[in-house]
Amino acid sequence: MDQSVAVWLVLAVAVLAANLPYFNERLLFVGPRRAPKAVSWRLLELVLMAVLTFAVGAVLESRIGQRHAQGWEFYAAGACLFITLGFPGFVWRYLRRGRG
């Protein structure tokens, strides 16, 4: 796999994963359906999706070549980027549609 393809794949996975908690009413995507899912469940799902996205990136990086060790700065910036990528889903869930 080419390096640029891997980068675009991780970005596409990140955009999808960051917005998925806002468009799904099931608990952890497979559990029972809840009409108004609590914000705490959405935050937990957002954290889990961020971890899975980082794992996909690490796997693709190790398949391309040698995986580089990252410091806390990388993960802090990645988490901020992940939250920013989830903004369209947040707007759709809480700002555009309203509470009802």
UniProtKB/TrEMBL annotation:
Pfam families documented for this protein: DUF2818
Alphabetical list of InterPro entries matching this protein: UCP019883
Stretches that traverse the bilayer: 41-60, 72-95
Alphabetical UniProt keywords: Membrane, Transmembrane, Transmembrane helix
Protein name as it appears in the record: DUF2818 family protein
Organism lineage string: Bacteria, Pseudomonadati, Pseudomonadota, Betaproteobacteria, Burkholderiales
